[in-house]
Amino acid sequence: MNQFENQVVVITGSGRGIGAAAARQFAAQGAKVVVNDLNPEPAEVVVESIKKAGGEAIMVTGDVTASDFPELILGKTIDAYGKLNVLVNNAGFTWDGMIHKITDEQWQAILNVHATTPFRMIRAATPYLRDAAKADLESGKTPENRCIINISSTSGLHGNFGQANYAFAKMGIVGLTKTIAKEWGAFGVRCNAVAFGFIDTRLTQAKESGEVIEVSGTKVELGIPQKVIDARNDRTIPLARPGTPEEAAAGILMMASPLASYITGHTLEVTGGMGI
Ligand SMILES: NC(=O)c1ccc[n+]([C@@H]2O[C@H](COP(=O)([O-])OP(=O)(O)OC[C@H]3O[C@@H](n4cnc5c(N)ncnc54)[C@H](O)[C@@H]3O)[C@@H](O)[C@H]2O)c1
């Protein structure tokens, strides 16, 4: 079933992990995909794999937190494909620390990428989502599937040790999601969040493996300390294992699908039951 035939999908941070899996899945279902990442190399690999499989994709690299980024990526999307159907605000990283050690820079960097950027992306998408849907409605045209998926986390829904900044942003995105659902619902534009638990990506590798992200000249260590991974009790996840990026991405496609045409303002938990 090509659920996204002829639809245009923008996914931020889709060079790796969940975003990359979502890009491939959307393309396999007929979508034209705009792949973004901070790093061009992994984004290029994703675009090439989509094309090799017979799909369509372009790459727009860049830091999503740059103030001119939303106009840049959406401008290139419209130049290439002429419209926008699905916006997935996925890019992000963690910069953990217990609250008494979190610096202002650390706090702000995480809010910028996980909360301020999705706000700016949605605002910049107004002409292509809200206004285009309104025009369809007024001219009596059958409305297209138009929606936004924001990525949240169990850390936002329930809080988490060492993640005050991330939890604050990932809960904030739920409020933003519900507000957009209310403001744009009358035009038929949906807005939902997908909250992940423990998905096996670079973000959840052992900190000791040395993964680093460089943002605005600052190197940030990614991952979870090995002793925290070792102490993890399988009973905290009823399905007793981490999710794969593909399983996580499937949650994004579910909420973006035309089959979810009457679902808006919802936060779907893709967590293997973690937090129930
Ligand atoms: N992995 C998990 O267990 C988990 C759990 C809950 C939520 N999430 C969320 O899912 C989303 C995807 O994370 P993931 O696990 O796939 O991580 P990942 O590190 O595998 O992929 C994230 C991608 O985003 C890119 N990125 C980061 N900051 C960027 C920026 N400023 N501009 C452009 N690109 C940027 C990275 O380069 C990377 O390729 C994030 O929002 C994350 O917070 C992940």
Give a verbal description of the structure.
The chain is an alpha/beta fold. It is 42% helix and 15% strand. It contains nine helices and nine strands. It is globular. The chain starts with 7 loop residues before the first strand and ends in a 6-residue tail after the last strand. The model has no long low-confidence stretch (mean pLDDT 96). The chain binds nicotinamide-adenine-dinucleotide.
Summed up, the helix count is 9
The appropriate CATH architecture is 3-Layer(aba) Sandwich
Order of helices and strands: EHEHEHEHHEHHEEEHHE
User: Structurally, how many domains make up the residues?
Assistant: 1
Radius of gyration: 18 Å
The CATH topology is Rossmann fold
Largest sheet: 7 strands, parallel
Structural class estimated from helices and strands: alpha/beta
Mean pLDDT, to the nearest integer, reads 96
Largest sheet strand order: 3-2-1-4-5-6-9
Percent of residues in beta strands: 15-25%
Give the termini separation.
Answer: 32 Å
Query: What is the overall shape?
Result: globular
Q: What is the CATH homology-level superfamily? A: NAD(P)-binding Rossmann-like Domain
Q: Quick recap of the structure?
A:
The protein is built from 9 helices and 9 strands. It has helices at residues 17-28, 40-52, 69-81, 104-124, 127-139, 154-158, 164-184, 226-230, 245-256, and strands spanning 8-11, 32-35, 56-59, 86-89, 147-153, 190-196, 212-215, 218-221, 267-270.
